[in-house]
Design a protein that fits this description.
Layout (H helix, E strand, L loop, with lengths): L3 H13 L3 H21 L4 E3 L11 H6 L4 E10 L2 E6 L3 E3 L5 E3 L11 E4 L3 E2 L5 E2 L5 H5 L8 E5 L20 E4 L2 E4 L2
Parallel strand pairs: 1-2, 1-6, 6-9, 9-10
Antiparallel strand pairs: 2-3, 4-5, 7-8, 10-11
């Protein structure tokens, strides 16, 4: 079995190889599915992430729905991994990530949490970036918070190694739509 570091490098290179115009089109389609999903379920408080590198871009949904409350993560601690959550404005923070200037919540006060990753499998396991931030957060969330891995379809259905500290998401969101696990 490959190491998680090797798998991260592989999946990052694979995502980076997708042309920018294609990633933009996929991001727009994903944001359309997200908007319909939220409208259908009356979701107005969403935990999201600002894109870094070739990551899915959720900014079209943020711009289209300023009436919703969008919460973004800020790295509060790396050891142990801990996020705090706040709304815009954002500033450059940990490793150049866009983070809220003011992050007052250790648990995001959301109905839906969009979770980043490099790869996702059909059981909801995800290959993250290696910091453990979301694996530390997910088991602490109230059970009414929906957790959905957000990425491109090329990142889905990948075999993801699972370790005891890994925590699966409940659904997957891509340019093809939202699907629930199990």
């Amino acid at each position: 079995m490959e190491t998680k570091a090797a798998l991260r490098a592989f999946h990052l290179a694979r995502r980076d190889a997708v042309p920018t115009s294609q990633r933009q089109a996929w991001s727009e389609a994903l944001c359309g599915h997200l908007a319909r999903f939220c409208r259908d379920r009356r979701i107005t408080r969403v935990g999201a992430f600002w894109p870094t590198g070739s990551e899915v871009d959720l900014r079209p949904a943020v711009r289209t729905h300023p009436e919703w409350l969008w919460f973004f993560p800020r790295v509060a601690s790396t050891h142990p991994p801990r996020l705090a959550w706040g709304t815009e404005p954002l500033e450059s923070g940990y490793r150049g990530l866009q983070e809220p200037v003011l992050a007052q919540h250790f648990l995001p006060p959301v109905q839906l949490l969009l979770v980043p990753g490099l790869a996702f499998d059909d059981s909801g396991c995800r290959l993250g970036y290696g910091g453990g931030f979301f694996d530390a957060l997910l088991p602490q969330l109230p059970e009414e918070v929906m957790t959905v891995g957000a990425g491109f379809e090329t990142q889905m259905h990948q075999a993801v190694p699972e370790e005891p500290h890994d925590w699966p998401v409940q659904g997957l969101l891509s340019e093809r739509g939202v699907r629930w696990i199990g």
